[in-house]
Amino acid sequence: MTIVCRDIIGPMDLSRRSLLASPAILIGCRRSPAVRIAIFRGEEFTPLAKSLGYFAAEGLEVEISEVASTPKAMQALFGDSADVVTGGYDHAIHLAAEGRKARSFIVLTTRSPLALVASRIRRIEDLKGATVGISGFGSSGQHFVNYLLHRHGLTEKDVNFAITGGGHGVTVASIEHNRLDAIVTLPPSLAILRARMPGLVILADGTSVEGAREVFGVDQYPAIAMMAQADWIGAHRDTVAGLARAMRKTLGWVRAHSAEELQQQLRNRAGQPEELEGLRATIASCSPDGRMPAGGPEAVREMLAATYPAIRSLDLTSTYE
Q1: Where does 121-224 have alpha helices with state H?
Q2: What is the pTM of this model?
Q3: Residue 106's closest CA among 224, 262, 272, 266?
């Protein structure tokens, strides 16, 4: 619980001991439950916001739980074990097609964090019969691969998906040791693989401006967003506004600092030097203002419609603020 007190001497941050010792001081205090936020493994903006103290500055206490993929986070959201999710915005659209209303209230990245890489396969058309690593079934990574397959004359039935559970270490080891034919990566693991494997094949790269334009047909693609159920947003407007302000401050902090400083803040130490190029891509992907970019929802809908054609007729206005 967060205890917020406002009285004649202003805001106070009080310990439980002092509150118990002086019951009268509780006049004017209210107790606010912690906001439960589920994130996918590898999402670092939300933990960064907490470590920088931006949630606390908004009078919010947050509890962050990390799960393997955005679908797992959405399960927590609709299973009432999370209030908010930070994950792939594509899931808000996919769920809307199923009649479940999750809505983005701040966009964190306007570039996809996903790339599809391989050690031996040279073209997407050659993935037929291959084993492709993704963080989880129904993940943004699987949507990404499905879309690429359809664009190159294949379908999701032409490959075997292997669930890795996400994480940079697993991703890097899976390709370095030839455990998988191809795998979906995030920027830090992509940068490490590029440095360690000169022969790495980049089959598709949504992390660069050129790659996003090639893959999705837009310069700004709303990839990672903070989302909640529409009813929860309506009932917690002050909390949503505070979360959005905290995340905008976080985006501003990331854009104002170097990859080295970001690495130190995230890891509390210097990490692998190869990772820095990936963190530069993360910095470049930050939304400048948290707003949904023009044409972005339509690009995401088109990507999903490769596998789910009925989504093309979906009204997108319920999926973002």
Answers
A1: 140-151, 168-176, 187-196, 209-216
A2: 0.85
A3: 224
Angle between helices 237-256 and 275-285 (to 10 degrees): 130
**Residue 5 falls inside a structural domain:** no
pLDDT-based confidence at 32, cuts 50/70/90? low
Residue range of the domain that includes 123: 115-216
Tell me whether residue 2 is in a domain.
Answer: no
Least-confidence region, from 2-6, 181-185, 281-285: 2-6
Nearest-angstrom CA–CA distance, 278 and 186? 8
CA–CA gap between residue 113 and residue 300 (Å, rounded): 14
| pLDDT band of 274, cuts 50, 70, 90 | confident
Domain shared by 107 and 239, yes or no: yes
Least confident range from 1-5, 70-74, 186-190: namely 1-5
Q: Smallest Cα–Cα separation from 59: which of 17, 31, 24?
A: 31
Residues 6+ apart with CB under 8 A from 33: 1
Residue 277 lies in a domain: yes
Is 137 in the same domain as 268?
A: no
| Domain end point (choices 216, 243, 258) | 216
Residue at 211 is within a domain:
yes
Q: Can you point out the beta strands (E) in the chain? A: 2-5, 29-32, 35-40, 62-67, 84-88, 102-107, 115-118, 131-134, 160-163, 182-185, 201-205, 224-229
Please, which pLDDT band fits residue 31 given cuts at 50, 70 and 90?
low
Q: What is the pairing mode between strands 2-5 and 182-185?
A: unpaired
